[in-house]
Amino acid sequence: MMSDFLQFAVSGVTVGAVYALIALGFTLIYNASDVVNFAQGEFVMLGGMGTVFALQAGLPLPLAALIAVMGTAMIGIAFNKLAIERARNAPIVSLIIITIGASIFLQGVVQVVFGKGIHRLPAFSGDEPLRLLGATITPQSLWVIGGALVVFAALYLFFTRTITGLAVLATANNRFAARLAGIDTDFMMTLSFGVSAAIGALAGVLISPITLTSYQVGVPLALKGFAAAMLGGMGNPKGALVGGVLLGVLEAMTAGYLSSHYKDAVAFIVILVLLSVKPQGLFGLRTVNRV
Amino acid sequence: MLVVEGLRAAYGRIEVLHGIDIEIHSGEIVTVVGANGAGKTTLLKTIVGAQPVAGGTITFRGENISAVPGFRRLARGLALSPEGRQIFTNLSVEENLRLGAYLYTDTRVDKDMDDAFAMFPVLREKRNLNAGGLSGGQQQMLAIARALMGRPSCLLLDEPSMGLAPLLVAQIFEVVKSLKALGVTVLLVEQNAFGALSVADRGYVMETGMIVLSGTGRELIENPRIRESYLGL
Predict the structure, then answer these.
(1) Fewer CB atoms inside 10 Å of the end CB: C or N, chain B?
(2) Which of B117, B197, B185, B124 is nearest to B155 (CA)?
(3) A162 falls within a domain
(4) In this complex, do A177 and B86 lie within 8 Å of one another by their Cβ atoms?
């Protein structure tokens, strides 16, 4: 009994860590620009696919992963410069539609360049499972969870301890005032897209040994990450973490105790109910402005 | 120090500044008074680069800065404490002040923050609270203090007395006067013409995007037309 529960919890937290990373990507871009970036899932896909092909080109795994993450960050920056920044004065809805366009475009390019095949990455430290209180944990799960923790810790320090992090928050809070304070708000946008793309790509690198990857893995992951971000409260990094892990565990428990057919349904029903009670999500800010 | 010549600005096709000429000398307190909608806020926004120049020039410390991006003008010494305060409501009081000194990383930042707290002791008490929870008067103090953290040689103040209780209004005007002693040149925009003209060395009167009158603070207070239109006397 207990070992079953633990088993489901471990796989839930593993998947949840990936959702949390994707939700974090949504949150960073949303904070800097009010845009919900539906191309976020493609960053995950590019991270996984990029690593696969860099590996096939003969590079060692760490280097291949690094190149994929850096390359994806560049694509994120280019996406901001070439598409979002140019439409800066368009309504937010138009910007969101641009991100959907970018998502389709990136899938198309990868499909043409790398083909439609499904690929797998080798696990980073072998496939020998570890045993813990009757549950088995693959080493790759630990990589995923550890990777997510490192990313969240690093971003926490960035936002609370550095003036650049504070400037990103200021840009999100009040762009006009941020510029008056001498902050280059366009650069803060670029930074947000770059970091967000890199985090998405890292999630893709970490999860590909478990879930496999292909040109079309991005969209479902983006939807889950978006749901996780909404659940935790859009725009709050802590919400992204809690929302992601919660969604992953919810799915795993449903799949384990009910049926894997229902796991998406149950997850989304819980989100619908929660959002109807608490529309701003678990940690969403209800901004109070005094006049 | 700041010379504005033939300045024009427009929102879309609607021109709201029709060729403004004003000049502010180093160490002065100069005010621009006028009714709501005269274009005073647009004038300040254009000077700091938050609104594009449609014609004319802005010369600051001998350099034409009309084409300098807005976020680079603070580094040259121009700061604006904007209308409606525009503080960072989700961040703490201290973080707001720290961001005012975004351009600097030296030890003077801490000293400047101490000075800001000395000027507005209530901000020290609330330094760790969310700025969005401050009262209107406290937010105004924070907006001025944050602008000062940027070490401006010329500070533009947009309606600092707006919406404040009379006692606070008097306190804000005292602060404006004290800036002179700190060597900060001040351009003050106000609807409260009497308060502004009382602290100012010189003043301009603005109507529908044009300067219609100028003189020393005393001259303008004593001008019959001003007394009738703006001072209600």
Answers:
(1) C
(2) B185
(3) no
(4) yes
Contact (CB<8Å) B72/A288 = no
Token code pair at residue A112 = 């043409």
CA distance A183 to chain B (A): 6
The pLDDT assigned to A284 comes to 73
Please name each of the domains of chain B with its CATH number. 1-77+152-162+180-233 (3.40.50.300), 84-151 (no CATH)
> What is the pLDDT at residue A260?
85
Q: Verify whether the Cβ–Cβ distance A290 to B147 is below 8 Å.
A: no
Residues of chain B positioned with their CB less than 8 A from the CB of A239: none
A287, closest residue in chain B (CA to CA): B90
CB pairs under 8 A between A and B: 85
pLDDT for residue A287: 47
**Residue A272 resides in a domain:** yes
**How many Cα atoms sit within 13 Å of A51 on the Cβ side?**
31
Q: Which residues on adjacent β-strands are paired with residue B130?
A: B92
Interface confidence (ipTM) of the complex = 0.92
Looking at residue B21, its amino acid is D
Range of the domain at A67: 2-145+191-277
Residues of chain B below pLDDT 50:
none
Is A186 a member of any domain?
Answer: no
The total number of structural domains that make up chain A: 1
- Give phi and psi for B113, each to the nearest 5: -70, -40
Whole-number pLDDT of residue B107 = 93
| Inside any domain, residue A14 | yes
Stretches in chain A below the pLDDT threshold 70: 285-291
Instruction: Please tell me the number of Cα atoms within 13 Å of A224 on its side-chain side.
Output: 31
Model pLDDT, residue A278: 83
